[in-house]
Amino acid sequence: MGQDQTKQQIEKGLQLYQSNQTEKALEVWMKVLEKSSDLMGRFRVLGCLVTAHSEMGRYKEMLKFAVVQIDTARELEDADFLLESYLNLARSNEKLCEFHKTISYCKTCLGLPGTRAGAQLGGQVSLSMGNAFLGLSVFQKALESFEKALRYAHNNDDTMLECRVCCSLGSFYAQVKDYEKALFFPCKAAELVNDYGKGWSLKYRAMSQYHMAVAYRLLGHLGSAMECCEALDAIERAQDLAEEVGNKLSQLKLHCLSESIYRSKGLQRELRAHVVRFHECVEETELYCGLCGESIGEKNSRLQALPCSHIFHHRCLQNNGTRSCPNCRRSSMKPGFV
Fold first, then answer.
1. Over 258-286, what HEC string results?
2. CA dihedral 110, 113, 118, 119 (to 10 degrees)
3. How far is it, in rounded angstroms, from Cα 125 to Cα 147?
4. Parallel, antiparallel, or unpaired for β 303-305 and 311-313?
5. Are residues 250 and 262 in contact, defined by beta-carbon separation less than 8 angstroms?
6. What is the C-alpha separation between 309 and 4, in angstroms, rounded?
7. Per-residue pLDDT, 18
8. In the prediction, which pLDDT does 336 show?
9. Which member of 45, 143, 180, 274 has the greatest number of CB atoms within 10 A?
């Protein structure tokens, strides 16, 4: 497959992707990757695959294509391509919560000299680094990175980047328990979406609404939190997505959030439905203590994982007195393990 045909197929994949025919788009791009001999075309299609798998939540696949893109960039011997591919590698590791690797790859990006794309991508590198520092609870460095990313966004009139940074700042201030600022920044992101986001992906609107809902919930304004969710049926959409990808933990968290909101509004039928689904998720994920039966994760409790990987309340195991696992009955409890 030559350069012109490669370009045509990449564009065909983009059209399919933009019309929500994601799987067909992936098929087209994979064929390009298999058959094309054009290095620049291969680099571009790898970028499409990285982005698509990121938005689909397939982060291991995202990482796989980011690694291949690095190799392609080295073959091209172009610093701009290398910067872009290292950024994709950093983002992939960020999504997989490999935060130390994310920071390392971001520093590699910032250390690449003389790239034309530096001004455009530097803010995104700083944002990814800030998210990694936040994941590691290194709050001062996280805030420094977010502020740097925000300066990049303002200096380059990059409103999409500014929107993403504002959402990350919302998460930052939620974690440090400054809930007023945790609300301010997502509200700013929502304003940017309303003013400039006509051609943006729907995820930016949903992202800002989600962070607003989190802040309202932390402030105790559950009605306002519900309104944010209702604006795009965010909870229902998130639940559908979590079920589609099989993410049981996200389903559990969403049902717990819905339960709190419906309880505050006195909607008993909806409340009961989410309570039932919450406990079903607890059963499916085995996120309950096999001794007392209470769900794990709702309250701040000291837990103990046995060598067989079953998890119990520490107090329950101490009171149990048996030397085998209460769930699987394996004699896996070492003397003095509890």
1. HHHHHHHHCCHHHHHHHHHHHHHHHHHHC
2. 100
3. 12
4. antiparallel
5. no
6. 54
7. 77
8. 41
9. 45
In the DSSP assignment, the letter for residue 323 is: S
Gap between the Cα atoms of 214 and 229, Å rounded: 10
**Element (DSSP H or E) covering residue 155:** helix 139-155
Let me know: does 87 contact 109? Beta carbons within 8 Å: yes
> Distance of alpha carbon 43 from its chain centroid, rounded?
24
Angle between helices 22-35 and 39-55 (to 10 degrees): 150
Q: How far apart are CA 272 and CA 65, in angstroms?
A: 43
Cβ neighbors of 247 (< 8 A, separation 6 or more) are: 57
Q: Tokens for 154, please give them.
A: 């303002």
CA 258 remoteness from chain centre? 20
User: pLDDT at position 86, please?
Assistant: 93
List, in order, residues 6 or more apart from 333 with CB less than 8 Å away. Answer: 306, 307, 322, 323, 324, 325
Of the candidates 282, 199, 288, 290, the one whose C-alpha atom is nearest the C-alpha of residue 248 is 282
- What token pair was written down for 150? 């925000």
How far apart CA 16 and CA 22 sit, in angstroms, is 7
Beta strands in the chain (DSSP E): 303-305, 311-313
Per-residue pLDDT, averaged over 154-182, amounts to 92
As a whole number of angstroms, the distance between CA 125 and CA 118 comes to 9
Cα distance from N-terminal residue to C-terminal residue, the chain = 62
- Residue the block writes with tokens 């995104």: 124
